[in-house]
Amino acid sequence: MSTVKKTVKAASVIMVLTLISKIFGFFRDVTLAAKFGTSVFMDAYNMATVIPMILFAAVTAAIATTVIPIFTEYYQKEGKEKAFDFINNLLGTVGVATIVLTFIGIIFAPYLVKFVAPAFTGEKFELTVKLTEILLPTMVLIASSNIFTGALQAMEHFTVPAMIGIPYNIVVIGAAILYAHKFGIIAIAYSIIFATFIQALMQLPVLYKLGYRFRLKINFKDEGVKKVIVLAIPVLIGTGIQTINVYVDRVIASFLPDGSIAALNYANRLNMFALGIFSTAITTVIYPVLSRHSVQEDKEGFVKSLNFAVSGILYILLPVSVGAMVLRVPIIRVLFERGAFDERSTYLTSIALFYFAIGMTAYGLRDVLSRSFYSMKDTKTPMINGALAVLVNIILNLILVRYLELGGLALSTSIAAIFATFLLFNSLKKKIGSINGKQMLISFLKAMGASLVMGITVYFVYNHLTARVPDKKIYEALTLFMTIIVGALVYIPIVLLSDKNAFNYFKKGIKFINAKFVRL
């Protein structure tokens, strides 16, 4: 079976599973929105989730990006036993490090909250501190889960890692429905601890079936750990820089009217929905493939796989981006506007979503390009380019927030993502030579042309249908659904007729997914 065919099949499975997970994720967000809306409780909760990210995002990102290439190298050159030994030692050393950081974070929680949310005072401040202390231990579990995920994906087992978001969301939804009325947002924080534990635990049976056996091992001088540290340092720095970016966004947003932080969060969740389904699926599958090509020094296969991933993201995310911009208000209204989430919440979230959607495709491309460097064990280049992009984002934040307020923060993020993507394309071309950029440009132009036609069509179709149905939620949902279907029916034929490769990939994907459902 060809690499491209295997990639299409694996990506198809991940997309389906991720879609199910994201649907549950939306039920979670809808439930939280109905319970808490854009209230101070959600502002405190969203800000509290930033604290663990500041302390641990760099560690977990480093693990996620370094496990696969190093595990792949051990697996192919020294065998399964050595690769699993590396996993056990990494679990032990990372576990010790994250536990220590957790205790430090709990001790200094009030100072951390004051740092990330200087405008928070009184009960809002105290609640954020309490939520932070509850959420900090989850990062130990997340680090372990990332290690298990990296090992499974390196061995091209993608199904279970793609499913772990489903029980996570079910646990949080259950807590919100059963306990939010009695314990408030605190119940959600405790449910996340249990949910992250489930994520780590459910991957172990598959690993054990593949021959893995857990053995407690802590050796900071281990060769594999040293490789992780060497590769992780630039990732740690790069993620730390990205965290500064998030910090600046949240600090500025904390000075905007109440609900601005929550609106940014809801809009970002919607923006990341498409990325989580499509971009993450392609990136997840292509990363071990690129790592294998890199270990085998197969440049032709590397470039071919990279082009496939880039084209796939362009053809999928560009129409989604345009659709999100055109239909942002009805999407938010249908998904979130109920309970405490009122018209003002919809208005605020729609502003942020419009500007976030501008950079959606760039985010997807940036992830694939960063993984291409990581697969070659080059973590410095993405760090440098990411730092430049963050600098651009911070400067634009300070400028655009004066004119667009909430929208300025989202627009700055999108512009910075586009800037980072161009930098990564240029750096990759310098590193490996030709990357068949002409073909990528052609794919972009075809996808953009088809997306613009689709965007214009759905704009008029939605307005036409809305004027002819009663003003009720059920009719609005049906109108939105019908408009999206019309958009897909306009976009897909244009792309398939204009690009033979897209047509072939589409056929393979549909055939494979259909075969899976028939077996069920």
UniProtKB/TrEMBL annotation:
Ribonucleoprotein recorded as keyword: no
Key words, A-Z: Cell membrane, Cell shape, Cell wall biogenesis/degradation, Membrane, Peptidoglycan synthesis, Transmembrane, Transmembrane helix, Transport
Segments crossing the lipid bilayer: 7-27, 47-70, 90-113, 133-152, 159-179, 185-208, 228-248, 268-290, 302-327, 347-365, 386-404, 410-428, 440-462, 474-497
Chief subcellular location: membrane
Signal peptide limits: none
A single GO BP: peptidoglycan biosynthetic process
UniProt subcellular location: Cell membrane
GO cellular component: plasma membrane
Bilayer disposition of the protein: Multi-pass membrane protein
Pathway(s) where this gene product acts: Cell wall biogenesis; peptidoglycan biosynthesis
MF terms (GO), sorted A to Z: lipid-linked peptidoglycan transporter activity
Alphabetized PANTHER family for the sequence: LIPID II FLIPPASE MURJ (PTHR47019)
Function recorded in the entry: Involved in peptidoglycan biosynthesis. Transports lipid-linked peptidoglycan precursors from the inner to the outer leaflet of the cytoplasmic membrane.
Family: Belongs to the MurJ/MviN family.
Name this polypeptide is given: Probable lipid II flippase MurJ
